């Protein structure tokens, strides 16, 4: 029973990898067919340039997610779970976004659609900025909001404590330590 979850993950990873390869290579075959036979769009330069991030993402998903199983069925390497969130999810998004742009390029017969690909580095820059900003605030280097600066009033008491009775304030200051009675 201990290996059931590992076997499920291996089966699921094989299924996901088969699906993503089928979708990706089918879409590239359709795009190549339209590009070479119907000259839609006229230039394939942008296709080659923007296929590189998708193929790089596909390579990373393949490298980290492909389980290794020996002929007897014993799992040698489990591989990363391809259903988890985070970087794996973003790699799949890049692949799907590239496929969508391929089909939009065919439909509109224009290479101007590839300018929408700038959304990928823009989103990456936005996420990196948020991570850096959160790290800076975590370690005290971030800017303080007005609420944090004005935490104490003129009397030296916290603003949130104004509605509390003196007994509640004393208990909080004391830490509500139970008193021990000895016989």
Layout of secondary structure:
Elements: H1 4-37, H2 45-65, E1 68-69, E2 75-77, H3 87-108, H4 119-138, H5 146-149, H6 166-174
Antiparallel strand pairs: 1-2
Helix pairs in contact: 1-2, 1-3, 2-3
Transmembrane segments: 20-38, 45-61, 94-117
Biased composition (Basic and acidic residues): 170-183
Family: Belongs to the TMEM208 family.
Structure described in brief:
This protein is an all-alpha fold. 60% of the residues lie in helices and 3% in strands.
Brief descriptors of the model:
183 residues, two-stranded antiparallel sheet, 3% strand, 6 helices, mainly alpha, 60% helix
Descriptive report:
This protein has 183 residues and is mainly alpha-helical. It has one domain (4-140). Helices cover 60% and strands 3% of the residues. The chain is built from six helices and two strands, in the order ααββαααα. A two-stranded antiparallel ribbon has the order 1-2. The longest helix has 34 residues, at 4-37.
* Number of domain units: 1
As laid out across the biggest beta sheet, the strand order is: 1-2
Low-confidence stretches: 146-150
Gross geometry: elongated
User: What share of residues is helical?
Assistant: 55-70%
Q: Roughly what fraction of the amino acids lie in strands?
A: under 5%
Number of strands: 2
User: How far is the N terminus from the C terminus?
Assistant: 55 Å
Q: How would a textbook summarize the main sheet?
A: 2 strands, antiparallel
Structural class of the helices, strands and pairings?
mainly alpha
Region (Disordered): 149-183
Protein name: Transmembrane protein
Family: Belongs to the TMEM208 family.
Transmembrane segments: 20-38, 45-61, 94-117
